[in-house]
Amino acid sequence: MTAKLSANDLTLIRGESCLFQGLGFALNPGELLLLEGQNGSGKTSLMRAIAGMLSLESGEILWNDIPVDEQRQEFHGALVWLAHRTGLKGDLTLVENLHFEAALRPQANVDFEAVCERLGIARLRSLPLRSLSAGQQRRVALARMLLADVPLWLMDEPFTNLDREGRALIMRLTEEHLANGGMCIMAAHQDVEIDSTVTRVSL
Amino acid sequence: MGAPIPQQPGIFVGLIAIARRDLLLAWKRPGDVLNPLFFFAMVCTLFPLAVGPSAEQLTFSGPGVLWVAALLSTLLSLNGLFMSDHEDGSLDQLLVSPQPLPVLVLGKTIAHWIISGLPLVLISPLLAMTYRMPADVMGVLMLTLLLGTVCLSLLGSIGAALTVGLHRGTALLSLLILPLAMPVLLLGANTVSLAAGNEVYATGIWALGAYAVAALSLAPYATAAALRISNE
Fold first, then answer.
1. Strands A58-63 and A66-67
2. What is the pLDDT of residue A167?
3. What would the pLDDT profile of A111-129 be if each residue is shown by its tens digit?
4. A76 contacts B98 by C-beta, under 8 angstroms
5. Is the CB of A106 less than 8 angstroms away from the CB of B13?
6. Is residue B201 a contact partner of residue B194, using CB atoms and an 8 Å limit?
7. What is the rounded CA–CA span in Å between residue B98 and residue A73?
8. In chain A, what residues touch B111 (CB-CB under 8 Å)?
9. Residue A169 to residue A159: CA distance in whole angstroms
10. Banded model confidence at residue A2, pLDDT cuts 50, 70, 90
11. Angle at which helices B202-230 and B101-112 pack, to 10 degrees?
12. pLDDT tens digit string along A3-39?
């Protein structure tokens, strides 16, 4: 039985320095891959490489046993990336931002109202995003992730700017996602207490 | 019978979504839209003041001035095409979007043209009056500008994509785009001049149209590739 998402012998060189070499992992539905390492150790770079935004020196990433390079569109349709920068428009309202994201994924079938309610952002819906706090913006980015309704979550430092409750919320959402057969790759400094199969990769 | 075919979202879903978003953003920040337009209007109105009101001179130089001003004003507006998306991280999100990148890029370019190219075409007759341009020549001017601004938006998107990661990339952007934009300028200005001299000008329009079609079919792919490279 081969893994849903697997990578072997990944090497990434940025400028003069080699960030990682011979790195490999396998991820199956219901599993969490935790990327650990100091600042600048290449966690974000690895994530960008998985998302196909950085070209690797060597190695390959397989989704359903097919290299992602050969099925970029399908692979992108199956993943959502919670990046360090939220990628939301400050001039647009929450609803306008999320409707744009939903329009890009017309097949996703998620109740918009329920998601906003759950993340505690329902009452902010008609405010321009730049008037929200960093943590609230973070929650809107989370809402986008839930609305995408895809199996693979890439989360780069998801706990940034969030309060204790927000952190607990992420843990809960991730646990639920994994329990429903989803997959998650997370880069985090903090201890992550999630009740599922966790593979750790140290960079 | 066979299973029902799942409804596939059309290829233009992403194009419409992103064009709508960019138009909405422009609506909320009218200053960004008006700046290049003011620049165009200013150059076109200042020029007759500087060279004097001689009718002969104005009729002679009108097409050239209008076209150069249109070109420069478009270059001015291109810098922002991917800039804000790059800064707030939404460019990264577009790169991992399930929609094909060239289609998204085309959507952004169309929005850019509606915001910067179309207003320029629409106000050009007003400015052409300063140069004593007859009404039928104004029609030719508008037609050439219509095709020309489409070309410039599309070609410019390639340059904007290549310079997106650079701070103050405007000069480099102009330098990259000018060789490609030169035929547009020559065709546009000369066609209007020919029309003003009561000569046959249709060839220029056809050539501009062909250039626009070529740009429309090739530029989105080049821009998408350039975005991937400059965002590594």
1. antiparallel
2. 87
3. 888 888 888 888 888 889 9
4. yes
5. yes
6. yes
7. 6
8. none
9. 10
10. low
11. 130
12. 688 888 888 888 888 888 888 888 889 888 988 888 8
How sure is the predictor about A104, in pLDDT bands with cuts at 50, 70 and 90?
Answer: confident
In this complex, the residue of A52, A85, A106 whose CB is nearest that of residue B88 is A85
The contacts of residue A108 (CB under 8 Å, 6+ apart) are A102, A147, A148, A149, A150
The structure's pTM equals: 0.89
pLDDT value, residue B27:
92
pLDDT at A119: 87
Within a 10 A sphere around the Cβ of A93, how many other Cβ atoms? 20
Chain B CA closest to residue A84: B89
Q: List chain B domain ranges.
A: 12-230
B53-62 pLDDT tens trace = 888 888 888 9
Amino acid present at A149: D
Token pair 């943590």: residue: A135
Interface contact flag, B21 A88, Cβ < 8 Å? no
What DSSP string runs through B10-29?
A: PTHHHHHHHHHHHHHHHHH-
Instruction: Indicate which CATH number applies to the domain containing A59.
Output: 3.40.50.300
Query: Number of folded domains in chain A?
Result: 1
Residue A18 β-bridge partners: A13
Domain hosting A125: range is 5-202
